[in-house]
Specification:
heterodimer; A: Cytochrome C3; 9 helices; 4% strand; B: disordered C terminus
Protein backbone atom coordinates (compact mmCIF):
# COMPACT_ATOMS: atom_id res chain seq x y z
CA UNK A 1 0.00 0.00 0.00
CA UNK A 2 2.72 2.40 1.01
CA UNK A 3 4.67 1.63 -2.14
CA UNK A 4 1.78 2.64 -4.39
CA UNK A 5 1.31 5.96 -2.58
CA UNK A 6 5.02 6.62 -2.94
CA UNK A 7 4.76 6.00 -6.65
CA UNK A 8 2.11 8.65 -7.21
CA UNK A 9 3.87 11.24 -5.05
CA UNK A 10 7.24 10.63 -6.57
CA UNK A 11 5.86 10.72 -10.09
CA UNK A 12 4.34 14.17 -9.58
CA UNK A 13 7.35 15.53 -7.75
CA UNK A 14 9.68 14.30 -10.46
CA UNK A 15 7.52 15.78 -13.18
CA UNK A 16 7.82 19.18 -11.54
CA UNK A 17 11.53 18.87 -10.85
CA UNK A 18 12.54 17.58 -14.24
CA UNK A 19 10.27 19.92 -16.15
CA UNK A 20 8.19 17.52 -18.18
CA UNK A 21 7.68 13.93 -19.18
CA UNK A 22 10.69 13.85 -21.51
CA UNK A 23 13.09 13.97 -18.59
CA UNK A 24 11.42 11.24 -16.65
CA UNK A 25 13.37 8.28 -17.97
CA UNK A 26 16.45 8.84 -15.83
CA UNK A 27 14.34 9.67 -12.83
CA UNK A 28 12.45 6.40 -13.22
CA UNK A 29 15.71 4.47 -13.11
CA UNK A 30 16.38 5.95 -9.69
CA UNK A 31 12.88 5.26 -8.45
CA UNK A 32 13.01 1.74 -9.82
CA UNK A 33 16.16 0.92 -7.86
CA UNK A 34 14.74 2.55 -4.74
CA UNK A 35 11.57 0.44 -5.05
CA UNK A 36 13.61 -2.65 -5.73
CA UNK A 37 15.68 -2.16 -2.60
CA UNK A 38 12.53 -1.44 -0.57
CA UNK A 39 10.94 -4.65 -1.88
CA UNK A 40 14.05 -6.65 -1.03
CA UNK A 41 14.12 -5.14 2.46
CA UNK A 42 10.42 -5.98 2.96
CA UNK A 43 11.11 -9.61 2.13
CA UNK A 44 13.43 -10.03 5.11
CA UNK A 45 12.89 -10.25 8.82
CA UNK A 46 14.79 -7.40 10.48
CA UNK A 47 17.14 -8.14 13.36
CA UNK A 48 15.68 -7.44 16.82
CA UNK A 49 18.15 -4.61 17.43
CA UNK A 50 16.96 -2.87 14.25
CA UNK A 51 13.20 -3.47 14.46
CA UNK A 52 12.39 -0.09 15.99
CA UNK A 53 10.88 -1.43 19.21
CA UNK A 54 13.75 -3.26 20.92
CA UNK A 55 16.33 -1.16 22.73
CA UNK A 56 19.56 -2.16 20.92
CA UNK A 57 21.44 -1.75 24.23
CA UNK A 58 19.27 -4.27 26.08
CA UNK A 59 20.54 -7.79 26.71
CA UNK A 60 17.34 -9.18 25.17
CA UNK A 61 18.05 -7.61 21.77
CA UNK A 62 21.45 -9.34 21.79
CA UNK A 63 20.62 -12.87 22.90
CA UNK A 64 16.93 -13.56 22.08
CA UNK A 65 16.12 -15.69 19.01
CA UNK A 66 16.02 -13.63 15.80
CA UNK A 67 12.79 -13.82 13.73
CA UNK A 68 14.68 -14.77 10.56
CA UNK A 69 16.21 -17.81 12.22
CA UNK A 70 12.82 -19.28 13.12
CA UNK A 71 10.48 -17.96 10.43
CA UNK A 72 12.60 -18.54 7.33
CA UNK A 73 12.18 -22.31 7.78
CA UNK A 74 8.34 -22.21 7.66
CA UNK A 75 5.94 -22.17 4.68
CA UNK A 76 6.31 -18.66 3.24
CA UNK A 77 3.61 -16.04 2.86
CA UNK A 78 3.58 -12.53 1.42
CA UNK A 79 1.85 -10.86 4.36
CA UNK A 80 2.02 -10.61 8.13
CA UNK A 81 4.92 -12.63 9.54
CA UNK A 82 5.54 -13.91 5.99
CA UNK A 83 4.56 -17.33 7.28
CA UNK A 84 1.51 -19.45 6.37
CA UNK A 85 0.82 -20.35 9.98
CA UNK A 86 -2.08 -22.72 9.29
CA UNK A 87 -0.05 -24.63 6.72
CA UNK A 88 3.03 -24.69 8.94
CA UNK A 89 0.88 -26.32 11.62
CA UNK A 90 -0.81 -28.80 9.25
CA UNK A 91 2.50 -29.85 7.71
CA UNK A 92 4.03 -30.39 11.13
CA UNK A 93 6.70 -27.72 10.64
CA UNK A 94 5.68 -26.43 14.06
CA UNK A 95 4.18 -28.43 16.93
CA UNK A 96 2.74 -25.85 19.35
CA UNK A 97 1.40 -27.18 22.66
CA UNK A 98 -2.39 -27.33 23.00
CA UNK A 99 -2.65 -26.99 26.76
CA UNK A 100 -0.70 -26.38 29.94
CA UNK A 101 -3.01 -27.90 32.54
CA UNK A 102 -3.81 -31.64 32.44
CA UNK A 103 -7.51 -31.06 33.25
CA UNK A 104 -8.07 -28.75 30.25
CA UNK A 105 -10.33 -30.25 27.57
CA UNK A 106 -9.09 -29.44 24.05
CA UNK A 107 -12.13 -28.64 21.90
CA UNK A 108 -12.17 -28.75 18.11
CA UNK A 109 -14.94 -28.41 15.52
CA UNK A 110 -14.93 -29.29 11.81
CA UNK A 111 -17.73 -27.14 10.41
CA UNK A 112 -17.77 -24.46 7.72
CA UNK A 113 -19.99 -21.39 7.95
CA UNK A 114 -20.84 -19.60 4.72
CA UNK A 115 -21.47 -15.87 5.10
CA UNK A 116 -22.96 -13.97 2.22
CA UNK A 117 -21.32 -10.64 1.44
CA UNK A 118 -22.84 -7.41 0.22
CA UNK A 119 -22.29 -6.12 -3.31
CA UNK A 120 -20.11 -8.01 -5.73
CA UNK A 121 -17.74 -9.53 -3.20
CA UNK A 122 -17.55 -13.32 -3.15
CA UNK A 123 -19.13 -14.92 -0.06
CA UNK A 124 -17.01 -15.81 2.95
CA UNK A 125 -16.23 -19.35 4.01
CA UNK A 126 -15.38 -19.47 7.71
CA UNK A 127 -13.72 -22.80 8.53
CA UNK A 128 -14.10 -23.77 12.19
CA UNK A 129 -11.51 -26.51 11.76
CA UNK A 130 -8.49 -24.25 11.14
CA UNK A 131 -9.67 -21.78 13.76
CA UNK A 132 -10.18 -24.36 16.51
CA UNK A 133 -6.71 -25.78 15.89
CA UNK A 134 -5.43 -22.52 17.39
CA UNK A 135 -8.32 -21.18 19.44
CA UNK A 136 -10.84 -22.41 21.99
CA UNK A 137 -14.60 -21.83 21.59
CA UNK A 138 -14.59 -19.25 24.42
CA UNK A 139 -12.22 -16.98 22.49
CA UNK A 140 -15.10 -16.05 20.13
CA UNK A 141 -18.33 -17.34 21.75
CA UNK A 142 -20.42 -15.78 23.25
CA UNK A 143 -18.35 -12.60 23.36
CA UNK A 144 -17.20 -11.61 19.87
CA UNK A 145 -19.73 -13.79 18.02
CA UNK A 146 -23.02 -15.41 19.09
CA UNK A 147 -23.05 -19.21 18.78
CA UNK A 148 -26.38 -19.16 16.95
CA UNK A 149 -25.89 -18.88 13.18
CA UNK A 150 -27.05 -15.54 11.82
CA UNK A 151 -27.35 -13.89 15.23
CA UNK A 152 -24.19 -11.78 14.80
CA UNK A 153 -24.30 -9.00 12.24
CA UNK A 154 -20.82 -8.92 10.78
CA UNK A 155 -19.55 -5.82 8.98
CA UNK A 156 -16.27 -4.95 7.26
CA UNK A 157 -16.45 -1.54 8.92
CA UNK A 158 -16.22 -3.13 12.35
CA UNK A 159 -13.58 -5.60 11.20
CA UNK A 160 -11.38 -2.78 9.90
CA UNK A 161 -11.68 -1.10 13.29
CA UNK A 162 -10.35 -4.19 15.02
CA UNK A 163 -13.67 -5.69 16.09
CA UNK A 164 -15.14 -9.13 15.20
CA UNK A 165 -12.72 -10.97 12.80
CA UNK A 166 -10.47 -7.90 13.10
CA UNK A 167 -9.62 -8.73 16.70
CA UNK A 168 -7.09 -11.20 15.24
CA UNK A 169 -7.03 -10.55 11.46
CA UNK A 170 -5.00 -7.39 11.04
CA UNK A 171 -3.25 -7.78 14.38
CA UNK A 172 -1.87 -11.33 14.62
CA UNK A 173 -3.60 -13.54 12.01
CA UNK A 174 -3.23 -12.81 8.28
CA UNK A 175 -4.02 -9.14 7.60
CA UNK A 176 -7.06 -7.52 5.99
CA UNK A 177 -5.27 -6.86 2.73
CA UNK A 178 -5.75 -10.54 1.85
CA UNK A 179 -9.43 -10.12 0.84
CA UNK A 180 -9.79 -13.29 -1.20
CA UNK A 181 -8.59 -15.67 1.50
CA UNK A 182 -11.90 -15.13 3.31
CA UNK A 183 -14.07 -13.97 0.39
CA UNK A 184 -13.42 -17.19 -1.48
CA UNK A 185 -16.84 -18.33 -2.72
CA UNK A 186 -17.70 -16.76 -6.06
CA UNK A 187 -21.37 -15.88 -6.44
CA UNK A 188 -23.33 -17.56 -9.22
CA UNK A 189 -23.59 -15.25 -12.20
CA UNK A 190 -20.31 -13.43 -11.62
CA UNK A 191 -17.41 -14.69 -13.69
CA UNK A 192 -14.59 -14.50 -11.19
CA UNK A 193 -13.47 -12.26 -8.31
CA UNK A 194 -12.83 -8.76 -9.59
CA UNK A 195 -9.94 -6.85 -8.08
CA UNK A 196 -10.93 -3.45 -6.72
CA UNK A 197 -9.16 -0.50 -8.38
CA UNK A 198 -6.00 0.98 -6.82
CA UNK A 199 -4.84 -2.42 -5.64
CA UNK A 200 -1.14 -2.77 -4.94
CA UNK A 201 0.12 -4.08 -8.27
CA UNK A 202 3.69 -4.60 -7.13
CA UNK A 203 2.50 -6.89 -4.38
CA UNK A 204 0.21 -8.81 -6.72
CA UNK A 205 3.08 -9.43 -9.09
CA UNK A 206 5.18 -10.71 -6.22
CA UNK A 207 2.39 -13.11 -5.26
CA UNK A 208 2.10 -14.44 -8.79
CA UNK A 209 5.83 -14.93 -8.91
CA UNK A 210 5.64 -17.15 -5.85
CA UNK A 211 2.87 -19.40 -7.14
CA UNK B 1 18.73 19.85 -24.00
CA UNK B 2 20.74 22.28 -21.92
CA UNK B 3 23.50 21.09 -19.61
CA UNK B 4 22.00 22.78 -16.55
CA UNK B 5 18.70 21.02 -17.00
CA UNK B 6 20.45 17.72 -17.38
CA UNK B 7 22.37 18.25 -14.13
CA UNK B 8 19.23 19.40 -12.36
CA UNK B 9 17.48 16.25 -13.45
CA UNK B 10 20.26 14.06 -12.10
CA UNK B 11 20.30 15.93 -8.79
CA UNK B 12 16.54 15.54 -8.47
CA UNK B 13 16.75 11.82 -9.07
CA UNK B 14 19.49 11.42 -6.48
CA UNK B 15 17.61 13.41 -3.86
CA UNK B 16 14.44 11.39 -4.32
CA UNK B 17 16.23 8.07 -4.35
CA UNK B 18 17.93 9.02 -1.11
CA UNK B 19 14.66 10.24 0.44
CA UNK B 20 12.88 7.03 -0.45
CA UNK B 21 15.64 4.86 0.93
CA UNK B 22 15.68 6.85 4.19
CA UNK B 23 11.87 6.79 4.36
CA UNK B 24 11.91 3.04 3.90
CA UNK B 25 14.32 2.42 6.74
CA UNK B 26 12.93 4.91 9.27
CA UNK B 27 9.55 3.29 9.70
CA UNK B 28 9.17 0.74 12.49
CA UNK B 29 10.02 -2.71 11.20
CA UNK B 30 8.73 -4.57 14.22
CA UNK B 31 7.70 -8.14 13.48
CA UNK B 32 3.98 -8.52 12.72
CA UNK B 33 1.95 -8.81 15.96
CA UNK B 34 4.75 -7.81 18.33
CA UNK B 35 3.08 -6.36 21.44
CA UNK B 36 4.64 -3.62 23.55
CA UNK B 37 3.52 -3.86 27.19
CA UNK B 38 4.17 -0.65 29.08
CA UNK B 39 1.32 0.11 31.49
CA UNK B 40 3.46 -0.59 34.56
CA UNK B 41 7.05 -1.09 33.35
CA UNK B 42 8.42 2.40 32.79
CA UNK B 43 6.51 3.85 35.74
CA UNK B 44 8.58 1.43 37.80
CA UNK B 45 11.90 2.20 36.18
CA UNK B 46 12.06 -0.73 33.77
CA UNK B 47 12.18 -0.83 29.97
CA UNK B 48 8.85 -1.72 28.30
CA UNK B 49 8.22 -5.42 27.61
CA UNK B 50 8.23 -6.66 24.02
CA UNK B 51 6.02 -9.73 23.61
CA UNK B 52 6.72 -11.49 20.27
CA UNK B 53 3.63 -13.41 19.12
CA UNK B 54 5.65 -15.16 16.36
CA UNK B 55 8.03 -16.76 18.89
CA UNK B 56 5.28 -17.94 21.20
CA UNK B 57 2.91 -19.29 18.55
CA UNK B 58 5.61 -21.63 17.24
CA UNK B 59 5.54 -23.24 20.70
CA UNK B 60 1.97 -22.72 21.95
CA UNK B 61 -1.47 -22.41 20.36
CA UNK B 62 -3.37 -19.17 20.94
CA UNK B 63 -5.79 -20.96 23.29
CA UNK B 64 -3.09 -21.69 25.88
CA UNK B 65 -2.61 -18.03 26.78
CA UNK B 66 -5.95 -16.64 25.63
CA UNK B 67 -8.17 -19.34 27.17
CA UNK B 68 -6.21 -21.22 29.85
CA UNK B 69 -4.19 -18.28 31.18
CA UNK B 70 -6.86 -15.62 30.74
CA UNK B 71 -5.05 -13.05 28.59
CA UNK B 72 -7.76 -10.91 26.96
CA UNK B 73 -7.32 -10.46 23.21
CA UNK B 74 -6.90 -6.69 23.26
CA UNK B 75 -3.57 -5.02 23.91
CA UNK B 76 -3.74 -2.79 26.97
CA UNK B 77 -6.70 -4.51 28.66
CA UNK B 78 -4.70 -6.96 30.80
CA UNK B 79 -3.29 -5.70 34.07
CA UNK B 80 -0.11 -7.73 34.41
CA UNK B 81 2.01 -7.18 37.51
CA UNK B 82 5.31 -8.76 38.51
CA UNK B 83 3.68 -10.22 41.62
CA UNK B 84 1.15 -12.02 39.38
CA UNK B 85 4.00 -13.43 37.32
CA UNK B 86 6.10 -14.50 40.32
CA UNK B 87 3.03 -16.25 41.77
CA UNK B 88 2.56 -18.20 38.54
CA UNK B 89 -0.20 -16.24 36.83
CA UNK B 90 -0.08 -14.84 33.25
CA UNK B 91 3.53 -15.05 31.89
CA UNK B 92 4.48 -16.78 35.14
CA UNK B 93 2.60 -19.95 34.17
CA UNK B 94 5.56 -20.76 31.88
CA UNK B 95 8.23 -18.25 32.88
CA UNK B 96 8.98 -20.13 36.09
CA UNK B 97 12.40 -21.62 35.35
CA UNK B 98 10.63 -24.82 34.32
CA UNK B 99 9.01 -24.35 30.88
CA UNK B 100 10.78 -21.04 30.15
CA UNK B 101 13.28 -18.76 31.88
CA UNK B 102 12.40 -17.42 35.32
CA UNK B 103 11.29 -13.83 36.02
CA UNK B 104 14.75 -13.08 37.43
CA UNK B 105 15.96 -12.58 33.85
CA UNK B 106 14.38 -9.11 33.86
CA UNK B 107 16.03 -7.70 30.76
CA UNK B 108 15.10 -10.53 28.43
CA UNK B 109 11.45 -9.44 28.50
CA UNK B 110 12.03 -5.82 29.50
CA UNK B 111 13.97 -5.09 26.32
CA UNK B 112 11.82 -2.43 24.60
CA UNK B 113 12.77 1.10 23.62
CA UNK B 114 11.92 3.56 26.40
CA UNK B 115 8.86 5.70 25.71
CA UNK B 116 6.92 3.23 23.55
CA UNK B 117 3.16 3.08 24.18
CA UNK B 118 1.33 -0.18 24.95
CA UNK B 119 -0.08 -1.70 21.77
CA UNK B 120 0.22 -4.08 18.83
CA UNK B 121 3.11 -3.24 16.52
CA UNK B 122 4.18 -4.82 13.26
CA UNK B 123 5.27 -4.09 9.75
CA UNK B 124 1.90 -4.24 8.06
CA UNK B 125 -0.46 -1.47 6.99
CA UNK B 126 -3.30 -2.98 8.99
CA UNK B 127 -1.04 -3.49 11.93
CA UNK B 128 -3.45 -3.23 14.77
CA UNK B 129 -6.93 -2.80 16.08
CA UNK B 130 -8.24 0.73 15.80
CA UNK B 131 -5.69 1.70 13.18
CA UNK B 132 -8.41 2.78 10.75
Amino acid sequence: MQVSTYLVDVFHALKILTGGLGGLRLAFCGVFFALLSAAVAAGEWPALAKDGIHDPRSRGAKILQQPAEALSKLTPDNAGNQVRWVQALEKGEIRPREKLFPQTVVRKLDQDIILDAKGGMPAVRFPHRQHTEWLDCVNCHEGIFKTQIGASKISMFKILQGEQCGVCHGAVAFPLTECMRCHSIVKPGSSKPVMPPNIDLLKLQRNEGQQ
Amino acid sequence: MSRTRHLLRRAGTLVFTALMLVGGTLESRAEYADVVINRQAEKNGMRPVVFPHWFHRIRFRCKVCHAELGFKMRAGTNTITMSDIIEGRFCGACHNNDIAWSPENCDLCHSGKPGLPTGVFGGHETSGPGRW
